[in-house]
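Structure tokens please, single chain.
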Amino acid sequence: PEDDIGDKACGNVVSTDDLDRVGIRHPKDICRVLKGVKVFSPDRKTVFTINLKHFVLDRRAFGQRLLGDAKHAGVEFSDRTKALAPMVENGKVVGIKTDKGKMLSKLVVDASGFQAVIRNKLLGAERVHGGDTGVCYLEIRELEEQIDPNYFLVYLKGVGNGYCWVTPERKNRANIGIGVQGASNHPSPKTLFYKHVFPWFNLENSKLIKAKGGIVPTRGPINPLYSNGVMFVGDAGCQTNPVNAGGIGPSLAAGRIAGRVVAEVVEEGTDPGEYHRRYMDTHGKQQVALDAFRRFLLEVTDDDLNYTMRELLTEGEIERIVVGRAGAGLWKKV
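Here you go.
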């Protein structure tokens, strides 16, 4: 439903740089302005502080605002409409089938999230395996006092092969979550939450407001991001930070690139494959490097990662990981 757009299961944090790069005005309906991000080693003895201004979004309000902006720009919104499958003619996608009928289009953009309802019904399109996903569980809790009111907290490993985050929201409310690799035998993130995270932060006297779960891709982007009449954008194109599963910033960047290419295709008849080339040149290469670092994290022990963060990595390198701009030299170093 239209009223639910923006209500997502995520950490709800985006850097001001991510918004500025795509030209989106800073949201008014935010929960908190943060000084930056703190990244903790598994033993929580090594802490890297990245002082980069972030907003904690009222995720639903932000989604509603973007929807309003799109409608104001002329987008025709079809509420309560389910995309069912692509329409293919002579090997090219020419539209989609919905529960309300057919929609023809010169170009289709699949931005349907992790479910990728168009891509997953195309013969030959790349599939995402369970091991390249993160299964998340989060709780919104009212705390006696904030764990850290000024920073988004990220804890690498220490909870199996997963990671944990803490987002301070309004007053003493916090978004506390955990993500684990989505392999076929993955542990329950909710079970790990109560085994590790709950006692870490002494949540016994806190009040549960809401609990959510979800799945996010944690790998390099779909290759190619355009194929035979359809573009894949956001989670449908696996455009997230593979290390911390952050998707708001990368998806905004991908949407901006895709939108410009779509306009050029419609107005000038240019090659829609330019979307793949531009994304890979500006963001995709870093994402591939981060995916290699993610694989390193899955293989390394907690003790090895403690040593790596204590002795090998610098604060600048951790910052590039967090903001999604790490190069291949980073994972070669470790």
